[in-house]
Structure prediction request, 266 residues.
Amino acid sequence: MRVGGLLLDVEGTLVVDKRYQPVEGAVEFICRLRQARVPLRLITNNTTDSRASMVDKLGRAGFDFTGDELHTCIGAAVSHLKNEGAARCLILGTDTLRGLFADEGFTVVEGSDVDAVVVGLDTDLTYERLSMACDAVGRRGALLVALHRNRLLVDSRGRCSPSVGAIVEAIRYATRVEPIVIGKPSPAYYQQVLNDISLPAESVLVVSDDPLSDLAGAKRMGMRAAFVLSGKYRERSIVDSIPEGERPDLVVDRIGDLLARGLLEI
Prediction:
Protein backbone atom coordinates (compact mmCIF):
# COMPACT_ATOMS: atom_id res chain seq x y z
CA MET A 1 0.00 0.00 0.00
CA ARG A 2 1.37 3.41 -0.98
CA VAL A 3 0.18 6.37 1.07
CA GLY A 4 0.88 10.09 1.19
CA GLY A 5 0.72 10.45 4.96
CA LEU A 6 -0.23 8.74 8.20
CA LEU A 7 -2.41 9.53 11.21
CA LEU A 8 -1.23 7.54 14.20
CA ASP A 9 -3.05 6.68 17.40
CA VAL A 10 -0.82 6.80 20.50
CA GLU A 11 -1.87 4.47 23.34
CA GLY A 12 -2.05 0.87 22.15
CA THR A 13 -0.35 1.78 18.87
CA LEU A 14 2.94 3.57 19.60
CA VAL A 15 2.99 2.87 23.35
CA VAL A 16 1.46 -0.14 25.05
CA ASP A 17 -0.78 1.72 27.50
CA LYS A 18 -0.79 4.67 29.92
CA ARG A 19 2.60 3.61 31.29
CA TYR A 20 4.04 4.84 27.95
CA GLN A 21 6.34 1.92 27.26
CA PRO A 22 6.97 1.79 23.51
CA VAL A 23 5.45 -0.99 21.44
CA GLU A 24 8.17 -3.22 20.04
CA GLY A 25 9.43 -1.76 16.75
CA ALA A 26 7.42 1.48 17.04
CA VAL A 27 10.38 3.81 17.60
CA GLU A 28 12.18 2.32 14.60
CA PHE A 29 9.00 2.66 12.53
CA ILE A 30 8.81 6.40 13.24
CA CYS A 31 12.50 6.79 12.42
CA ARG A 32 11.91 5.19 9.03
CA LEU A 33 9.01 7.57 8.37
CA ARG A 34 11.17 10.55 9.30
CA GLN A 35 13.96 9.41 7.00
CA ALA A 36 11.48 9.05 4.14
CA ARG A 37 9.93 12.46 4.95
CA VAL A 38 6.45 10.98 5.19
CA PRO A 39 3.97 13.49 6.69
CA LEU A 40 2.40 12.27 9.91
CA ARG A 41 0.23 13.45 12.75
CA LEU A 42 -0.63 11.94 16.12
CA ILE A 43 -4.34 11.63 16.87
CA THR A 44 -5.33 11.00 20.47
CA ASN A 45 -8.42 10.81 22.63
CA ASN A 46 -6.29 11.17 25.77
CA THR A 47 -8.21 13.27 28.32
CA THR A 48 -5.84 12.93 31.29
CA ASP A 49 -2.67 14.64 30.02
CA SER A 50 -1.80 18.04 28.64
CA ARG A 51 -0.26 18.30 25.18
CA ALA A 52 3.14 19.16 26.73
CA SER A 53 2.94 16.19 29.09
CA MET A 54 2.20 13.80 26.25
CA VAL A 55 5.08 15.09 24.14
CA ASP A 56 7.37 14.72 27.16
CA LYS A 57 6.22 11.16 27.89
CA LEU A 58 6.66 10.19 24.24
CA GLY A 59 10.13 11.71 24.27
CA ARG A 60 11.11 9.64 27.31
CA ALA A 61 9.79 6.58 25.46
CA GLY A 62 12.20 7.28 22.61
CA PHE A 63 10.00 9.18 20.16
CA ASP A 64 10.73 12.62 18.70
CA PHE A 65 7.48 14.54 18.27
CA THR A 66 6.55 18.20 18.52
CA GLY A 67 3.37 19.65 19.96
CA ASP A 68 2.34 20.79 16.48
CA GLU A 69 2.17 17.17 15.35
CA LEU A 70 -0.23 16.20 18.14
CA HIS A 71 -4.00 16.64 17.70
CA THR A 72 -5.96 16.18 20.92
CA CYS A 73 -9.66 15.91 21.60
CA ILE A 74 -9.19 18.46 24.41
CA GLY A 75 -8.04 21.17 22.02
CA ALA A 76 -10.95 20.43 19.70
CA ALA A 77 -13.40 20.65 22.62
CA VAL A 78 -12.03 24.01 23.73
CA SER A 79 -12.58 25.43 20.24
CA HIS A 80 -16.10 23.99 20.03
CA LEU A 81 -17.20 25.33 23.42
CA LYS A 82 -15.84 28.80 22.69
CA ASN A 83 -17.73 28.82 19.39
CA GLU A 84 -20.89 27.85 21.30
CA GLY A 85 -20.36 30.60 23.87
CA ALA A 86 -20.34 28.10 26.74
CA ALA A 87 -18.52 29.80 29.62
CA ARG A 88 -19.46 27.74 32.71
CA CYS A 89 -18.56 24.06 32.64
CA LEU A 90 -18.88 20.99 34.82
CA ILE A 91 -15.88 18.82 33.93
CA LEU A 92 -16.05 15.09 34.60
CA GLY A 93 -12.37 14.21 34.55
CA THR A 94 -9.07 14.61 36.33
CA ASP A 95 -7.74 17.68 38.10
CA THR A 96 -5.43 18.10 35.11
CA LEU A 97 -8.38 18.23 32.72
CA ARG A 98 -10.22 20.77 34.87
CA GLY A 99 -7.05 22.86 35.03
CA LEU A 100 -6.65 22.82 31.26
CA PHE A 101 -10.16 24.18 30.76
CA ALA A 102 -9.66 26.78 33.49
CA ASP A 103 -6.44 27.89 31.78
CA GLU A 104 -8.44 28.43 28.59
CA GLY A 105 -10.71 30.90 30.37
CA PHE A 106 -13.68 28.69 31.23
CA THR A 107 -15.33 28.92 34.63
CA VAL A 108 -15.06 25.38 35.99
CA VAL A 109 -17.64 24.69 38.70
CA GLU A 110 -18.84 21.77 40.81
CA GLY A 111 -22.58 22.09 40.26
CA SER A 112 -25.37 21.79 37.74
CA ASP A 113 -25.80 25.51 36.94
CA VAL A 114 -23.56 25.34 33.86
CA ASP A 115 -23.61 25.87 30.12
CA ALA A 116 -21.95 22.55 29.36
CA VAL A 117 -21.01 19.21 30.89
CA VAL A 118 -17.68 18.02 29.49
CA VAL A 119 -17.00 14.31 29.92
CA GLY A 120 -13.47 12.95 29.99
CA LEU A 121 -11.93 10.03 31.85
CA ASP A 122 -12.95 10.45 35.51
CA THR A 123 -11.31 7.69 37.54
CA ASP A 124 -12.70 9.20 40.77
CA LEU A 125 -16.26 9.56 39.51
CA THR A 126 -18.90 9.62 42.25
CA TYR A 127 -22.65 9.21 42.12
CA GLU A 128 -22.97 12.82 43.30
CA ARG A 129 -20.97 14.17 40.37
CA LEU A 130 -22.87 11.94 37.95
CA SER A 131 -26.12 13.31 39.41
CA MET A 132 -24.92 16.90 38.92
CA ALA A 133 -24.17 16.09 35.29
CA CYS A 134 -27.58 14.53 34.70
CA ASP A 135 -29.35 17.47 36.37
CA ALA A 136 -27.37 19.97 34.27
CA VAL A 137 -28.13 18.19 31.00
CA GLY A 138 -31.58 16.79 31.66
CA ARG A 139 -33.21 19.63 33.63
CA ARG A 140 -31.19 22.75 32.89
CA GLY A 141 -30.44 22.14 29.21
CA ALA A 142 -26.64 22.19 29.39
CA LEU A 143 -24.68 20.88 26.42
CA LEU A 144 -23.46 17.30 26.83
CA VAL A 145 -19.96 17.27 25.34
CA ALA A 146 -18.14 13.94 25.11
CA LEU A 147 -14.41 14.30 24.56
CA HIS A 148 -14.80 10.93 22.89
CA ARG A 149 -16.95 7.82 23.17
CA ASN A 150 -14.44 4.98 23.40
CA ARG A 151 -15.66 1.91 25.24
CA LEU A 152 -12.43 0.57 26.71
CA LEU A 153 -8.88 1.56 27.61
CA VAL A 154 -5.83 -0.22 28.98
CA ASP A 155 -5.01 1.58 32.21
CA SER A 156 -1.71 2.21 34.01
CA ARG A 157 -1.95 -1.21 35.66
CA GLY A 158 -2.42 -2.98 32.36
CA ARG A 159 -6.10 -3.68 33.00
CA CYS A 160 -8.84 -3.38 30.39
CA SER A 161 -11.04 -0.70 31.97
CA PRO A 162 -14.16 1.35 31.08
CA SER A 163 -13.35 4.45 29.08
CA VAL A 164 -15.09 7.80 28.58
CA GLY A 165 -17.89 6.27 26.53
CA ALA A 166 -19.16 4.33 29.52
CA ILE A 167 -19.63 7.55 31.52
CA VAL A 168 -21.19 9.33 28.55
CA GLU A 169 -23.60 6.46 28.05
CA ALA A 170 -24.80 6.64 31.66
CA ILE A 171 -25.71 10.33 31.23
CA ARG A 172 -27.24 9.76 27.79
CA TYR A 173 -29.34 6.86 29.06
CA ALA A 174 -30.58 8.82 32.07
CA THR A 175 -31.35 12.08 30.25
CA ARG A 176 -32.16 10.82 26.73
CA VAL A 177 -29.91 13.60 25.40
CA GLU A 178 -27.46 12.67 22.66
CA PRO A 179 -23.89 13.89 23.28
CA ILE A 180 -21.80 16.11 21.04
CA VAL A 181 -18.80 13.87 20.33
CA ILE A 182 -15.59 15.83 19.83
CA GLY A 183 -12.64 13.44 19.35
CA LYS A 184 -12.14 10.38 17.20
CA PRO A 185 -14.08 9.26 15.19
CA SER A 186 -15.89 12.59 14.78
CA PRO A 187 -15.80 13.68 11.11
CA ALA A 188 -15.06 17.26 12.24
CA TYR A 189 -12.03 16.06 14.21
CA TYR A 190 -10.66 14.02 11.33
CA GLN A 191 -11.26 16.84 8.86
CA GLN A 192 -9.33 19.24 11.07
CA VAL A 193 -6.34 16.88 11.03
CA LEU A 194 -6.61 16.33 7.26
CA ASN A 195 -6.62 20.09 6.75
CA ASP A 196 -3.50 20.39 8.89
CA ILE A 197 -1.60 17.68 7.03
CA SER A 198 -2.83 19.10 3.67
CA LEU A 199 -3.65 15.73 2.15
CA PRO A 200 -6.82 14.26 0.66
CA ALA A 201 -8.50 11.54 2.72
CA GLU A 202 -7.89 8.80 0.16
CA SER A 203 -4.11 9.22 0.39
CA VAL A 204 -3.98 8.90 4.20
CA LEU A 205 -3.60 5.77 6.34
CA VAL A 206 -4.90 5.75 9.91
CA VAL A 207 -3.23 3.29 12.31
CA SER A 208 -4.97 2.43 15.57
CA ASP A 209 -5.76 -0.32 18.08
CA ASP A 210 -9.49 0.55 17.95
CA PRO A 211 -11.27 -0.77 14.84
CA LEU A 212 -14.73 -0.14 16.27
CA SER A 213 -14.27 3.61 16.69
CA ASP A 214 -11.11 5.16 15.23
CA LEU A 215 -10.79 3.01 12.14
CA ALA A 216 -14.47 2.63 11.28
CA GLY A 217 -14.72 6.42 11.40
CA ALA A 218 -11.63 6.78 9.23
CA LYS A 219 -13.10 4.44 6.63
CA ARG A 220 -16.34 6.44 6.57
CA MET A 221 -14.23 9.52 5.78
CA GLY A 222 -12.58 7.75 2.83
CA MET A 223 -9.24 7.08 4.53
CA ARG A 224 -7.51 3.74 4.66
CA ALA A 225 -7.08 1.91 7.95
CA ALA A 226 -4.62 -0.43 9.67
CA PHE A 227 -5.61 -2.26 12.85
CA VAL A 228 -2.82 -3.17 15.30
CA LEU A 229 -3.27 -5.93 17.88
CA SER A 230 -0.91 -4.31 20.40
CA GLY A 231 -3.59 -2.49 22.39
CA LYS A 232 -6.98 -3.16 23.90
CA TYR A 233 -8.24 -5.59 21.26
CA ARG A 234 -5.96 -8.59 20.79
CA GLU A 235 -8.15 -10.81 18.58
CA ARG A 236 -8.49 -10.33 14.83
CA SER A 237 -12.06 -11.62 15.05
CA ILE A 238 -13.23 -8.28 16.50
CA VAL A 239 -13.43 -6.94 12.93
CA ASP A 240 -16.15 -9.50 12.12
CA SER A 241 -18.64 -7.38 14.07
CA ILE A 242 -17.95 -4.31 11.90
CA PRO A 243 -19.93 -3.55 8.72
CA GLU A 244 -17.91 -4.71 5.73
CA GLY A 245 -17.33 -1.23 4.30
CA GLU A 246 -15.91 -0.01 7.63
CA ARG A 247 -13.46 -2.83 8.27
CA PRO A 248 -9.72 -2.09 8.32
CA ASP A 249 -7.71 -2.67 5.16
CA LEU A 250 -4.82 -4.21 7.10
CA VAL A 251 -4.49 -6.14 10.39
CA VAL A 252 -1.04 -6.57 11.94
CA ASP A 253 0.34 -7.54 15.34
CA ARG A 254 2.13 -4.22 15.82
CA ILE A 255 2.84 -1.04 13.88
CA GLY A 256 6.38 -2.03 12.85
CA ASP A 257 4.96 -4.97 10.88
CA LEU A 258 3.57 -2.56 8.30
CA LEU A 259 7.13 -2.05 7.02
CA ALA A 260 8.70 -5.32 8.12
CA ARG A 261 6.13 -7.30 6.13
CA GLY A 262 6.27 -4.97 3.14
CA LEU A 263 2.65 -3.88 3.53
CA LEU A 264 3.44 -0.19 3.38
CA GLU A 265 5.44 1.61 0.71
CA ILE A 266 7.16 4.84 1.75
